[in-house]
Design brief:
The chain has two domains: 32-249; 261-354, Immunoglobulin-like (Sandwich). It is globular. The protein starts with a helix and ends with a strand. 10% of the residues lie in helices and 56% in strands. The protein is mainly β.
């Protein structure tokens, strides 16, 4: 009986260990050295159908593995502000984040990361005080609160006064599951704000929630979800919901060797290009062989699954080759795909995006 009891205790302990280990939860801390923006960094965010941010708390599992890509992308690059940009703001920025032509000016120190202004073709927004977006370090239950005061000037030189309050809170941690069954331990940060925007014509109350999931190994958010509600003085209400995934964290077929822009022109066996991407109806694949070779060319999903074989172990002479991808023929849904080129067993990979 004693032996049976000892065995049962071991079995129960093992079962409990296995149950807990299905997901490995560990807390993430956002720090200056690991997560502050770096000059020259480039990120591409892929739009997916809106996914609810879910609940807050400890040891949460967010399953985004089945999300549908819309084909829209936002490209973000960290730039250095010029003298003219510094002069037009009350607080001198150290960074400009250019997101598809929308310029976000930031002041970055080893302790804080703050928004100081915004500019696009229609508006210039100047903040009277830095709008804090992060303090370092930042971990679960960390919180920032503050007031927001800014003036927006449009292309017609009419002004909009913006006043409100904001809160940034690390409200959850757990495991995030991405397409391709990629699992990441993450800390979720929620930026919320409520502002009143007053112009000569109308008053608008704007409530906004921005959820960002950070991992320890990725400097920039892995996933971002935004919920915005605008209440106009005439009674109209507009709601916006969107979710974006950082393309850097998505799966690449396991055997793929991703070519960087610097290496593409000097590839040993081949050069490989795709244009346009993103595309709507069709995209052109072009590769140049420097010598005779056995070539395979195929298209894969973000999880590595093969969608289409374009060339299958074909002997080709040195020279240039062109192929056309037609979305209708392959029944491609909007989203990101990978083109895999094998040249004498050396593998190259290209991301390609199908628009809506």
């Amino acid at each position: 009986m004693e032996l049976i009891m000892i065995f049962m205790k071991k079995y129960i302990s093992l079962f409990a260990f296995l149950s807990i280990s299905v997901f490995s939860f560990s807390q993430v801390t956002i720090d200056y050295s690991s997560h502050a923006p770096v000059l020259g960094d480039f990120n591409s965010y892929l739009s997916v159908d809106f996914i609810s941010p879910g609940e807050s708390g400890k040891n949460i599992v967010w399953d985004f593995s089945g999300c549908n890509f819309t084909g829209k992308t936002t490209n973000s690059v960290q730039m250095k502000p010029d003298a003219g940009e510094k002069a037009m703001l009350l607080i001198e920025p150290t960074f400009v984040i250019n997101e598809n032509g929308n310029l976000f000016y930031h002041e970055v120190t080893e302790k804080t990361y703050s928004l100081t202004g915004f500019k696009n073709d229609d508006f210039l927004i100047v903040y009277e005080e830095p709008l804090k977006r992060m303090v370092y370090p930042f971990s679960y239950s960390s919180e920032i609160t503050g007031t927001l005061k800014a003036v927006a000037t449009n292309i017609k030189n009419s002004e909009v006064e913006i006043n409100g309050n904001y809160k940034i809170q690390a409200d959850a941690f757990g495991v995030l599951i991405l397409p391709g069954n990629i699992k990441k331990n993450v800390l979720r940060v929620c930026q919320s704000s409520s502002t009143v925007q007053v112009s000569r014509c109308q008053e608008v109350i704007v409530d906004s929630y921005k959820y960002m999931w950070y991992s320890a190994e990725d400097r920039y958010p892995v996933v971002t979800a935004v919920i915005t509600s605008q209440h106009f003085s005439n009674g109209d209400v507009k709601n916006f919901e969107e979710t974006w995934i950082n393309s850097k964290v998505l799966a690449v077929p396991e055997t793929a060797e991703v070519m960087s822009p610097e290496s593409e022109g000097s590839a040993e066996l081949a050069t490989f290009n795709v244009f346009p991407t993103p595309f709507n109806e069709s995209s052109e694949i072009n590769f140049m062989l420097t010598d005779d070779a056995v070539v395979s060319l195929s298209m894969h999903g973000v999880a590595g699954n093969k969608i289409k074989t374009i060339l299958d172990e074909t002997s080709l002479k040195a020279g240039q080759y062109n192929f056309n991808i037609k979305s209708a023929e392959s029944a491609l849904k909007p989203g990101m795909y990978f083109l895999k080129l094998s040249v004498n067993d050396k593998i190259y990979s290209k991301k390609i995006i199908k628009n809506q």
